[in-house]
Structure formats: structure tokens, C-alpha cells
Amino acid sequence: MMEVKQQLLVCGAIMGGLSRPSWAFLLLMLTVIALLGVQITTNTVFPTWVGGGGSAEETPSSRRSCAGFFREGTRRKVVMSITDFGGVGDGRASNTAAFRRAIQHMQGFGERGGAQLNVPRGRWVTGSFNLTSNFTLFLQQGAIILGSQDPKEWPIIEPLPSYGRGRERMGGRHISLIHGDGLTDVIITGQNGTIDGQGKMWWDMWWNRTLKHTRGHLLELMNSSNVLISNLTFRNSPFWTIHPVYCSNVVIKNMTILAPLNAPNTDGIDPDSSINVCIEDCYIESGDDLVAVKSGWDQYGIAMARPSSNIIIRRVSGTTPTCSGVGIGSEMSGGISNVIVEDLHIRDSAAGMRIKTDKGRGGYISNITVNNISMERVKIPIRFSRGANDHPDEGWDPKAMPKVKGIFISNVISIDSLKAPLLEGIEGAPYEGICMRSVSILGLAPAAKWNCEFVLGFTHGVTPLPCPQLQSNRSSSWCSYS
Ligand SMILES: *[C@@H]1O[C@H](CO)[C@@H](O)[C@H](O)[C@H]1NC(C)=O
Ligand SMILES: *[C@@H]1O[C@H](CO)[C@@H](O)[C@H](O)[C@H]1NC(C)=O
Ligand SMILES: *[C@@H]1O[C@H](CO)[C@@H](O)[C@H](O)[C@H]1NC(C)=O
Ligand SMILES: *[C@@H]1O[C@H](CO)[C@@H](O)[C@H](O)[C@H]1NC(C)=O
Ligand SMILES: *[C@@H]1O[C@H](CO)[C@@H](O)[C@H](O)[C@H]1NC(C)=O
Ligand SMILES: *[C@@H]1O[C@H](CO)[C@@H](O)[C@H](O)[C@H]1NC(C)=O
Ligand SMILES: *[C@@H]1O[C@H](CO)[C@@H](O)[C@H](O)[C@H]1NC(C)=O
Ligand SMILES: *[C@@H]1O[C@H](CO)[C@@H](O)[C@H](O)[C@H]1NC(C)=O
Ligand SMILES: *[C@@H]1O[C@H](CO)[C@@H](O)[C@H](O)[C@H]1NC(C)=O
Ligand SMILES: *[C@@H]1O[C@H](CO)[C@@H](O)[C@H](O)[C@H]1NC(C)=O
User: Fold this and answer.
1) Looking at the domain assignment, is residue 156 inside a domain?
2) Domain count for the chain
3) pLDDT in tens, 66-80
4) Could you point out which of 64, 92, 224, 481 has its C-alpha 20 to 30 Å from the C-alpha of 123?
């Protein structure tokens, strides 16, 4: 049973032959998108609020920003270096005690103007440590924080109440390398320093089935607000890389997130039961979804009822050969609404935009706006799916159907695609208000057809010809949301 579940957490098989996009290709893409963009202004059927209220359509992509999601405070009163706390950046000595001492010291400045901990050039090995409020962790140029290779330095903590157990194993879970709970005003930034989780040990334990507890994240913040994560490289997370859960006002900007393309479940960024989260200008390549919006798992997520809402994912690019550019779900039992996904470039991936849910999830996915996505060599550019019997325990409720309503997808171009949209809703709970316009899936075999089950909606200007379920001819208000 456990073995079956473990396999289900992997998105699929590994694909080879990856390369970076050429400038010529990008130019072609921009031209085609510009041409497609012209169509949009000539049609009035699409709801005016698509794209975030209309005004977004007139603002050039490069100028739209996460401003407003994070409130910058005053400069930190105290700035100290990890070396002030006995840190040694030689790539061997453990700095766990140094980081913990530093944070404890800096906690004392929370109400007295805040503090900043600098990490200078060097290789700083450490076990897990917690952050504090009114605090900046600053990685100077050449600074590399390395995750400890001793699992005991990643102690076990309680499972999240919205999951009821560890995501991979029953019971508690390993704490993240960098952790925070109940914080306000936290900045993690620097001059392109690196936080490297050295996750290989954990991936091996997963592959060889010796993992006893769910793997830890590289960075997890719980119950926290006003958070900025920027200008750094995160790599080799044991599990999902950045996990804000029960948080609000989180900005993740100008980050590079890397993991080997076959490293299991190394999602880039997973906003989970969080509101007002803005992710922009990130490059991500990993063995799982680049970004996945979540909100708890089956009966535990339903009981907790903490939605993810007002989420922006913008100017993200990258590759994930077995998973999706942006995933919504599959854990979505607290509800997910008001998500904007725009200006993405996804290449060499299994899926581009994917909505995942299942019987037993309950909750809802609504008002998801996806606009201006370019893809190359993405097997299934647009995919909705209905899960694979992935439940926390026997206590899930087969009658808890998720409600999926109001998915607006526009200005998508995908070249060298393998499949037309594959849209599988749930019997007895069809996905409604699925609206697509100016969607071109190119490079398909002539016989390639849309594959739709239990979905209802409307399309305009899509190639190839959509499935009959999305040729519905209702009134123009069909695509508006109520
Ligand atoms: C953080 O700083 C703000 C403003 O100075 C202060 O009101 C608040 O109490 C501080 N929070 C903590 C947890 O120290
Ligand atoms: C960090 O916080 C977690 C819970 O939020 C706690 O279990 C753990 O003991 C803390 N670690 C340290 C070193 O304070
Ligand atoms: C964080 O939120 C969870 C879920 O609401 C709760 O169980 C936990 O006690 C909270 N932690 C703190 C420090 O408030
Ligand atoms: C992005 O971060 C890099 C360092 O990682 C920095 O050099 C660059 O200036 C940043 N770009 C912007 C637009 O802030
Ligand atoms: C940041 O550092 C990583 C390697 O650690 C490098 O791949 C990347 O190009 C750097 N980014 C910038 C903007 O300097
Ligand atoms: C599984 O992988 C871990 C981490 O690399 C290693 O320590 C352990 O010896 C391996 N166990 C088996 C049975 O292969
Ligand atoms: C990123 O780094 C650049 C260059 O140092 C700086 O101008 C910018 O303010 C930083 N951005 C954030 C969000 O930290
Ligand atoms: C849909 O989401 C967008 C973007 O988050 C928001 O501006 C709009 O108000 C939402 N519409 C409804 C009806 O909730
Ligand atoms: C579409 O997204 C690309 C990034 O993939 C961006 O360069 C371009 O400006 C966006 N187009 C519009 C009209 O915003
Ligand atoms: C469906 O749409 C076509 C073209 O827009 C229109 O001619 C036709 O009357 C519509 N049918 C129904 C049943 O509304």
C-alpha cells in the first residue's frame, strides 16, 4: 500500500533532450503572441475582469509588479555577521549552533528596530534553524548555506493540521532547513547567495524506501505575514523548495530555484492555505511542479477550511520534464480562488497549466485567470485531471466533491506539443465555466484531438478545434462569474 502511494507521488517518467530556448524562437513567439493579442480586443464575450480587472491588459508585462503585497519597513537597527556567533564557513564545520545563537540574539531586537544577519562568502553547513520577526537573513555574494547531511539535524515536527499527517509518511515530518512560525516582517535576500539543501541523501532515501518521515522543505514559513524572499538561488531541496503555509502577504521575486530534473517532489514554490502571495521573475527547474497552489488534503483540509486566495504567478520560466509549469492542487480541500497566472514561459515539460483534484478533496477551485503563456516541447500544454486515489487515510469522504468553476485561459501558444488539451473532470461534479480564447496548440499530429470529459464551457479562437463540450453556445454571460 505504502509502495503504491509512493509511486503515485511521482508525476511520471523522465524525458531527455533538454535545451535552452534560442533568441530566434523567443522573437517568433513574441510576434505570434502580439498577433493573437490583437484578437482579444475585438471580442466582447470574455469577462472584463479577466487579467485582474481589465487594467492589467494595458500595462506592459515588465511594469506589473508585486508592489503592495509586501510592506517594506525601516532599515534594521542591528546588522551582524554569522562569524560574530562563531560561524565557520569552511564547508565542513557545523554552524547549527551559530545560527541558533544568532537568531536568539536577534530576537531580542524584534521590538527595537529589528536585526539583519549577514552570511559572508563561504560554505556554511548547518542543520535546521528558525527565523524570527522583524528580521533579515542576507546572503552576501559567494555565500552558500549547505543543509546538514545528518537527518537528526532536521528534527521531526507535528504534521500540518490541514494534512493530518506527513504528506509522504504517516505521523510527523522533518522540519525544513530554514523554518519560521508565527512571524511578521521577514526578509530573506542577498547578492545571489545560495541555499543548497544537499537533498540527494533524502531523494535516495525516498527511492530506496528507507525514508521514515516526510522529507523537509528548504524553506517553510507558517502563520507568517509580510515576507519577502528575493535575489537568491535555492537548490537541491529535499522536498518542495519554498512552502508558505497559513501565511499572508508573501512576495517571492527574482529567485532561481534548481534541482535535478529527476529529483522526486522538488516543487519550486507551493503557496498553501495562504492569501496575498505574489511570485514573479523566477527561473525554476526541478523534478516536480515549478509552482503549485495548494490548500490542504481531503478531510483534514476540509475541516480546517483555510483557502489559498489572491495569488499572482507572473514572469516565471523553467522546465520540469515530468510535471507541470503551474499546478493548482491536487491538495485543494480548503479551497483555491482568485489566482492570476501570467507571462509564463515553460519548456521541455510534461504539462504547462494543470488543474488537479479528486473525489474526497471537497473544497473548490474558482476564478483562475491564465493569460500569455508560451510553451515549447511541452507534452500536454493544458491538462485537467481527477487524481489517482491519493488520500491521507481511510477516513476520506467519497461524497466530498471538489467544485471547479471559472477557469479563464487566454493567449496561449505552445509549439512542438504532443497532445491537445486533455480535460478530465469528475463524474457527478463537472468542471464548469471553462473558458479559453486565443489558444494555439501547434506541432500536433493531424489526428490529435481535444479530450474532454465532465467539463463545460466556451472557447473562441482555439487551435485545434475544441471538443464539443467547450463549443457551448450559451449567452455571452456564460463566461462571467457569479
Ligand atoms: C516588529 O516591529 C514592529 C514595528 O517596529 C513592532 O510593532 C512589532 O512589535 C515587532 N514585532 C515583533 C514580534 O517583535
Ligand atoms: C523551531 O520551531 C519549531 C516549531 O515551530 C520547534 O519545534 C523547534 O523546536 C524550533 N527549533 C529551534 C531550534 O528553536
Ligand atoms: C500555526 O497555525 C497552526 C494552524 O492554525 C496552529 O496549529 C499552530 O499552533 C500555529 N502556530 C503558531 C505559532 O501560532
Ligand atoms: C536579481 O537578482 C540578482 C542576484 O541574484 C541581481 O544581480 C539582480 O540585480 C536582480 N535583478 C533585479 C531586477 O532585481
Ligand atoms: C546566481 O548564481 C547562480 C549560481 O549559484 C548562477 O547560476 C546564476 O546565473 C546567478 N545569477 C545571477 C543573476 O547572477
Ligand atoms: C538508502 O539511501 C540512504 C541515503 O543515501 C543510504 O544511507 C542508505 O544506506 C540506503 N539504503 C539502502 C537500503 O539502500
Ligand atoms: C535585488 O537586487 C537588486 C540589485 O542589488 C536590488 O536593486 C533590488 O532592490 C533587489 N530586489 C529585491 C526585491 O530585493
Ligand atoms: C477574480 O480574481 C481576480 C484576480 O484575483 C479578482 O480581481 C476578481 O475580483 C475576482 N473576481 C471575483 C468575482 O471574485
Ligand atoms: C507575455 O509574456 C512574456 C514573458 O513570457 C513577456 O515578455 C511579454 O511582455 C508578455 N506580453 C504581454 C502582452 O504582456
Ligand atoms: C451558436 O453560435 C452560432 C454562431 O455563433 C449561432 O449562429 C447559433 O445560432 C448559436 N446556436 C445557439 C443554439 O445559440
Assistant:
1) no
2) 1
3) 999 999 988 999 999
4) 224
